[in-house]
Amino acid sequence: MRTILKWVFSVLNFFKSRIFAVGLLAALLSMTVYATSATINTVYIHDDKQDQTILVHTAEDDINQILVNQGITTKPVDMIEFKGFKDNVAEVYIKRAFPVSITADGRTKAVSMVNGTVRDAMKLAGVEMNNEDIINIPLSTFVKEGDKVVINRVKYRNTEVEEDIPFERVEKRTPLLRPGRSEILQSGRNGKLVKTYSERTIDGVVEESTLIAENITVRPVTQVALVGAKVPVSDLNFGYSIVNNAPTKYKKVIKGARATAYSAGNGAYGASGNDLFYGHVAVNPNVIPYNSKLYITSADGSFVYGYAIASDTGVALMKGIIDVDLYYESYRESQLNGVKNVNVYVLE
C-alpha cells in the first residue's frame, strides 16, 4: 500500500515540473499553427490596370472585401471574374471598362465597354443604322479603348428647281412702218422650267445630284418687233416678173381699189375654206373669184402687200363699200394698215 501511494506522489510531482509545462506549450502551439494554416487563403489578383499580378494571403473569403482590403476599387461597369476557392487558392481577373464614343445625327454618346464589337457598342448606345449609312469602323470589329465610331447618314431625296426660260426676240420687217422705225408687236415673257433632281445626301449635305426630269410649266412668249422696211407683207411668191412695181403679165387690174385690213387669230379660215395667214385676202367673189392669184401694191410702190390669194369675203365687200380686205396675223398690223388705195392685179 505504501508503494502505491509513493508512485502517485511521484506522478503528481512530474506534472508540476518544467518539462511538462514546455511539452504542453509545444503541443498547444502546434495545434494553433495547424488551425491557422488550414484557414489562410492565397489569392492572385490580375488587374488589367496593373502591369503585375498581386499576391494576397488572407483569412478573408469574400472577394469584394479582399479587394477593399487591398485598396482596389472597381466600378459597376468593370468586369470581375472569380470562380471561387480551390484548396484555399483563387484567381481574380479584373477587366476595366473603357469609353467608346458613338457619333451620329449630330450627337455623341459615350458608352463603357469591357469587350465586344462596334455593333455591341451601338446597341448599348441605342444607335441604329441602315444599309446606306456610312460607318468609319466595321460593325464586326472588336472595340478598344479610345475608339471613336462615326456614322454618317445617307439619304436620297428628290428636289425641284424652277428656272426661267428666256424669251426669244424676233424682228418682223413690214411696209406698215417707215424704214428706221420700229414697234413692239408682241411683248416677250420668260417661261418656267421645273427641273427634278435625285440627290444623295450625307448628313444633310448634297454629295451627288442627278437630273431625272424636266417639265415646262409656262412656255415663253416670243417678243415680236415690227421694223419698218421696203418689203412686201406676203411671203407668197408666184414667180411673176415685177417691173416698175407691177407684174408684166396679168388678166386684169383694179386701179385705185379701196383696201382695208382685218385679222382673225390663229386657226381662222375664210369663206373659200382656205386657212387664213399673210397673203390671203377677202374680195367680192362676183368680181374676183375665190382662189384667184393676185398682186397688190400702191401705185407709187410705197406700200406693197405682194402676192395674194382670194380666200374670203365680207358684207362691206359684197355691198361695194370696199374692194379688198387685207389679212394680217395681228390686230395691231390691221390697225396700222388703215385704209389704203391700191392696185389689185388679177394674175390668174
From TrEMBL:
The record's listing under PROSITE patterns reads:
G5
GO-annotated biological processes: peptidoglycan turnover
Q: For this UniProt record, give its keywords in alphabetical order, as a comma-separated list.
A: Signal
Record-annotated G5 domain positions: 151-231
User: What GO cellular-component annotations does this UniProt entry give?
Assistant: outer membrane
Checking Pfam families in the record gives: 3D (PF06725), DUF348 (PF03990), G5 (PF07501)
Tagged with keyword Nucleotidyltransferase: no
Residues in the signal sequence: 1-35
Q: Name one GO molecular function term.
A: hydrolase activity, hydrolyzing O-glycosyl compounds
In terms of superkingdom, the source organism counts as: Bacteria
Entry protein name: G5 domain-containing protein
The opening ranks of the lineage are: Bacteria, Bacillati, Bacillota, Clostridia, Eubacteriales
